[in-house]
Amino acid sequence: MSHEWILCHQQQRIRTLTLNRPEVRNALSNDCLEQLVQQLEQADADTGTGAIVITGSSRYFAAGADLRELQQQTVATAMTDRRPQLWQRLHNISKPLIAAVNGYALGAGCELVLACDLVICGESARFGLPEITLGLMPGAGGTQRLIRSVGKALANQMILTGEAINAQKAQQAGLVSEVCIDALTLERAEQIAQRISEFSPLALRAAKAALKTAYETSLSQGLLAERQQFVALAGTADRQEGITAFLEKRKPTFKGF
Q: Which region is the signal sequence (predicted)?
């Protein structure tokens, strides 16, 4: 692909991916989403990467799907679109994903935020699913993930009115974990990513998998899955190292096995 729509930066064990389509406010076309997923899969496979940060520009994180692509779509092309597979691949990333959001995260941009594990945003951030205003509805997890994140009342209001919420409301509702001043959003997200990336990759993968299970199953199934992940870690050198280091009052050195 001739366009480089995803900028990639590695610092220590953190991979930062920046959406870079300024001419369309970082709209997530299929090709752009594919580039993002490919970069995420590369980071997921890289033993030198412990956590991944996804960010946009200072004025917009991502302003939705590419409307010119949607304009051409028929029922037949929508049914055979590769987009659902791309979102599924994104969902399958096993390493922690942290969204650093300034400005607008709308439509597919908001759905990308919802697909991340942690969200840090600036005071300027706005989150919305305005698809209804275009005769559409969210189609990349918006209706399912938003309601699990912010609850029935707010999810219904956001999706049926198409109105965005601000950073403060997003934090109150549980969509984002921290709000900072805009200039520090990325720095704060990378700081959190840095802390996460120092832990055992095996423990992180197991914890993320268990947390995702909570979204998708009953409590009893979730508890069983959690226990299975917990038991699987018992045979790892990292777990031995973590406990030994704590007892010896030193910093652990995790190796990933």
A: none
